[in-house]
Amino acid sequence: MNKKDLLLILVILFVCIIMFLLFSNKSSDYAYVYYENKVIKKIDLNIDNEYTVSGYNGDVVIEVLNNKIRVKEEKSNNNICSNMGFVSSSLEPIICLPNKIVIKIVEDYKIDTVIR
Amino acid sequence: MDTRKIVRLSMLLSLSIVLSLIEGMIPIFSNVIPGVKLGLANIVIVFVLYLYSFKEAIYVSIARVLLVGLLRTGLFSIVFFFSLSGALLSIIFMYLFKKMNFSIIGVSVIGSICHSIGQVLMAILFLNNINVIYYLPYLLLLSIPTGIIVGISSKEVLKHYNKVKA
Amino acid sequence: MKKIIVLFILLLITGCSNKDYNQFNMFFMDTYINIKIYDLKFEDKDKVYNEIYDIYSVYDALCDRYTDYIGVNNVYYLNNVLEDGQSVVIDDRLAEVIAYGLDAYYLTSGKVNIAMGNVLDLWKKYRDSGEGIPSEEEFKNLKSISIFDIILNDNVYTKYNNVKLDLGSYAKGYVTELVADKLEEMGYYSYLINSGGNVKVGNHYSDDKYKIGIENPNEDYLVYKIVSANNTSVVTSGGYKRYYIYDDVKYHHIIDPVTLYPSNFSLGVSVITENSAYADILSTYLFLLPIEEGIYFVNSNDLVEALWYGIDDKVYLSEGYDKYE
Q1: What angle do CA A53, A56, A60 make, to 5 degrees?
Q2: CATH code of A49's domain
Q3: Which of B47, B141, B162, C280 is 20 to 30 A from C22 (CA-CA)?
Q4: Domain boundaries B3-165, CATH class
């Protein structure tokens, strides 16, 4: 280990801190469900419910419970994103690569509520 | 390429494949952050880079990805391309950093970093969705210790190899 | 020692899962209602929940047009069971709601008209089927939509000419105001109530103002304006949630009493004023007025501000709106 290595590690740490600061984490009312880059569903996290969307490989079942959201069922080999469990912050998007589905809790920039 | 070298590289290649496969069976972290790996196979790649040179390391890298693809993840599947991009980015930067006189630890760390960045980049392109980038800080942070472990391991293996050789 | 640790962990777990005890979700008046009470004391949570639940359920029953509650003279009863010319005693609370609606008629130059039940039913029929629009014939044969066919003396209700009550234009706002009053009566001043398009907020939970997002009528997931306010109501009226499309034309559910067709002056209007019932009435009113007239009305009213999302995709603000920026 030499000085350059230490510098490298410090730079990486610095970059990570910047990223964490930029990725604001506010609690929010909504999650967006994307298929590729299009929002295909907007989900209200205040309402406990189940939703089914069409992923690349088949249906993906999404569940909202107690202001948290998760993928309940999916058709994929490793079931990575259903194993992720419940997510409640905008810092943790649920990424389902094989089904091309992304669930992202939206930071509503300090919005307390939305009139729909 | 002389025969001894080919044999040695083939054995190293097999070793890296086996390490890849074994690693794939350990479900560490894959529940929390998909794509996190220990990067054990990189110990071999780093070893080859220091024992031989960039050329050999890139051959072994690509061969490893191809063969692991055949054996496990499916040739030309999504995961295959992710691995390939991670591996290529990784070996290129490792070579650069080696030239820039970083120690073997630094080189391994940047190798680890590149794997993560490569994967995230490919995921973003594949999904056409920027949100994968939220995982980058976590992956980067984890790459530091895993990179250091790979570096230390490769260093020890090299030391041992040189002792035995001599 | 082990037992203590287990107990401690159990307490921790139950403690953690009770983090959301100060948020209530209910479904009344055909709407999801979400109430956050920021200074709610844990031991009060059940009592407060029950009080709020009671208010909503009573008014939901009384104002319900489509359900018959045996023994309750609610709107369904008044519209479908009570006969012309007959009088009946109604619950004080319902009488107050109706009286408020009758006043609203004069306040809004007849635009907010609780006697519109018959024409609303006509449109609902087509909206539910998704096909066609009412014919000239059907309009001609419409039963009464005249406010004067509704007579209310204290709490004695009489109707004529088969007129039908519809309290939908302000009932939610009215009840929300009651719920807010109740919360303050119980000593809770820091709350946020969101019932469909009706939001009421009390004091802020820290040292700031509530940020209330207003949805873009054209794009489901976008907020086009954020109202920054405390101790006020924000109510939106618009045609972008309940409508149907026939022959390439969109028909929504807010009917202009003059043309008898869904109004077409704007895509949505949001009213900001302290009282929720008033806000609800005004938002319906403004939605049935050309934007210019609406702006004029609001500018001459000190207690109210409003914003419109125009058909031209432009946003219109009342004069005093910038205090809510």
Answers
A1: 30
A2: 2.60.320.10
A3: C280
A4: mainly alpha
